[in-house]
Amino acid sequence: MQETHRILLCAGTRPELIKLAPVYRNLRDRPAVTPFLCLTGQHDSLVQNLPRVLDVTPEFVLTREAGTSGQLGLLQNILRQLAILLEQLGPELVVVQGDTASALAGAMAACLQDIPVCHVEAGLRTRDLLSPFPEELYRQLISRMGTWHFCPTPENRATLLREDISSGQIFLSGNTSIDAVLDMLSRSPRPLETKAVSRPYILVTLHRREVQGEKLITIVRALRNFAESHAGYDFIVTLHPNPAIRRLLSHHLGGQGNIRLLPPLDYPDFVPLMKKAFAILSDSGGIQEEAPALDVPVIVLRDKTERQEGVASGCLRLAGYDPEKIFSELSLLIHDRDHYIDMCTAPAPFGEGRAGRIISARLEQIVTGQKIPHDDSSLSP
Length: 381
Ligand SMILES: CC(=O)N[C@H]1[C@@H](OP(=O)(O)OP(=O)(O)OC[C@H]2O[C@@H](n3ccc(=O)[nH]c3=O)[C@H](O)[C@@H]2O)O[C@H](CO)[C@@H](O)[C@@H]1O
Fold this sequence. Notes:
- By secondary structure, the protein is α/β, with parallel strands linked by helices.
- The chain folds into 2 domains: 5-175 and 351-379, 3-Layer(aba) Sandwich (Rossmann fold), CATH 3.40.50; 195-345, Glycogen Phosphorylase B (Rossmann fold, 3-Layer(aba) Sandwich).
- The chain contains 15 helices and 13 strands.
- It has helices at 14-28, 50-53, 70-89, 101-112, 135-145, 154-162, 176-186, 214-229, 243-253, 267-276, 285-293, 308-313, 323-335, 337-345, 355-367; strands spanning 5-11, 33-39, 60-61, 93-97, 117-120, 148-151, 170-172, 201-205, 234-238, 259-262, 279-282, 298-300, 316-318.
- The strands form 2 sheets. Strands 3-2-1-4-5-6-7 form a 7-stranded parallel β-sheet, with helices on both faces. Strands 10-9-8-11-12-13 form a 6-stranded parallel β-sheet, with helices on both faces.
- Helix 1 crosses helix 15 (355-367).
- The longest helix is centred in the N-terminal third of the chain and has 20 residues, at 70-89.
- The two termini are 35 Å apart.
- The structure holds uridine-diphosphate-N-acetylglucosamine (UD1).
- Uridine-diphosphate-N-acetylglucosamine (UD1) binds at residues 13-16, 18, 97-100, 103, 121, 132, 135, 177, 205, 207, 238, 264-265, 267, 270, 284-287, 290.
- InterPro entries: UDP_GlcNAc_Epimerase_2_dom, WecB-like.
- It comes from Emcibacter nanhaiensis.
């Protein structure tokens, strides 16, 4: 059998796997390349069903060793196992995505073994190392270790240029989350069997570390007040496995007739639920990208976002943790029809669903030593 160029993709969390699947599947179709997918074990229950749903089969699955808790334990554990895997497999490129511990460990293990790192979703910044923490730190560190940087938007590209990364190492691709969400929607979506979906509903997700404690309590109280005074709407809250957040949300939001708490949903259930939502209230990064592509307005429950393009375009509004602002943003959506339509129809800035193809084509050019044309418009998002 002819030897092809080996590329290793590392994913550890639900969003990373969702966002790397389009790259992996596209690479699989390229004869000059053999992609290998490694799951690092960072998320367990959330990624269980995902490979099948996303039509990917991981070649490697790292084990979560006992006693490796917290970010440091996670990093040590992944680094130790990846170092061995890289030596045995000998890939020519390692692909990491976004800003998780798995992405940082993947980049670090490759970089220290002198294997070029390709960063998908490069150039996102809040410029506040504490928000989101530790993701902002991780993305900045990965940019320093990366050789090739795939940016979702021109703004992300401009950011990396300002950080002295050479223009020849940066490519504009769009975000692979848009490929994933459009693909999932086109594949006979499974309508969620819930009474709640027969009325207009606002979908809520909340899980970030920065919102825990007092901020989270403030947000859920504002939400409960709003739900009590808007009986014509349902509020569907999908819970994250984090037990502290789960307990708090159940305690403060349970027992209110038009609020429905659901366990974390499989991606094929979640995508149609997003599409049919009247609006979304969320602190998630990926949802800020996906919902605008589905024409659904998002109120972002953070005071800073690394996805400012969505705010500038008008599809995202930042409400922070201020109960009055959350209340007023929700009221505007419900009571001001023009504002609602403007948000639904604002241009979605994170790509058109071609990022997986663009990235895989570039990676093939890179590993096969082809000359990479500058400003190649045939590969623009
Ligand atoms: C704020 C922030 O720093 N977030 C980072 C975080 O993800 P992020 O904040 O996006 O992580 P989430 O856990 O919200 O996951 C979002 C993904 O999960 C899906 N979903 C959500 C709820 C549910 O019940 N079921 C379901 O399938 C959504 O459609 C979306 O595709 O890691 C990502 C991957 O590196 C990065 O791109 C993000 O920048």
